[in-house]
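User: I'm writing a short report section on ligand binding and want a predicted complex to refer to. Could you take this sequence and glycine and write out the structure as tokens? A short remark afterwards would be nice.
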Amino acid sequence: MKDIIIDTPAQKSVIHCGEGAFEKYAPGLALRQVFVVTDSNVFAWYRHDIWRVLGGDVPIYIIPAGEPSKSIRYLTAILREMLSHGMKRTCTVVAFGGGVVGDLAGLAASLFMRGVRLVQIPTTLLAQVDSSVGGKTAIDFEGVKNVIGTFYQPEEVIVDPRFLSTLPDREIRCGLGEIVKYGALNSRIYELLLQNKADLKSTAFLEEITYHCIKHKADVVTEDEYDLNGVRKTLNLGHTTGHALELCYRKKSHGEYVLIGAYYELYIAEKLNICGKNYADSLRELITAVIKKVPVYEDVATAAKLAKFDKKNTDANVSLIVPQSEGKSAEIKLSLEEYIKLLEECSADLKEGK
Ligand code: NAD
Ligand code: GLY
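Assistant: Sure. The structure tokens for the complex follow:
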């Protein structure tokens, strides 16, 4: 078991990673006034662990599983329940679940009485490698993803691979989507991915790679906690197109859309000579090792228009973080017309099996 620390001026965030982290660190929470937020699936699998560790009468708010719960409706419901359970300024919100629970409960913790303590216990691979770490909280609003939120560091993150044993295969793929994203940003992670390409889902590999991804994110967040100087923005590789497709189609999960977004954006980078062919081929192979068939979008323009809402955009153009070379990314800005044209070309090539 290893600890990673993010030491920012506002809050020191300690991330405990490894098998046994839950049994070692969660019981300490029983000594505090806690309010647990979880979702219906996680509650079904792990309610006995919650009760065993935090007591049978711990207040719990259970949201319906899935992205639609990342909404103002459930945010206010959680705040209302916290108030009615007499939560004090000294209480701790425990976000026990995937990224949806983490983003929503994190936002509630940052708002209740102007901010109470927050502990994240991520139970999906995606939440373990990415969303539980770094303090971004959010809900979706008026059809725009993550448009209301705060930066609010969890005091503690308990990352235990034991929770991955009940994750559907598809959710493992989602987490691998974010892991491949890290691979495009960090040479060591890239190397590990290439070495383990044949068995990316093995338990030992996932535990090792999770540590490296969190370490990468922790370093980035330490350098640019509030996403101001361009360093943290790199974590958005694949996300401009991924978020747009996610909002438009809502058929797959976040991590799958990130990976599909990365595929389309890699195509753009190669077309614009930002990324060389050899590296593009090798990265493409990694992407398709996780998501066997990248979808063709007949009407990609409708989704592309949603990229106009991306928070990275500072003018009328669409901003993308694209792979450049091993461990290196670049930000590019395209007019909406250019962006749509390149996405359409990628979709047409995919359709022809190119
Ligand atoms: P999720 O929270 O919806 O979880 C995916 C599914 O897995 C759900 O059905 C959930 O009930 C189920 N589940 C969770 N843990 C389980 C377990 N141990 N066993 C069985 N089933 C389990 O989705 P996610 O992929 O974890 O997170 C996606 C969200 O994270 C998106 O809203 C995205 O915007 C957000 N996100 C935030 C950040 C950030 O920095 N804050 C980064 C990346 C993604
Ligand atoms: N997932 C992107 C970030 O935390 O900045």
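A remark for your report: The two ends are 45 Å apart (CA to CA). The mean pLDDT is 95.
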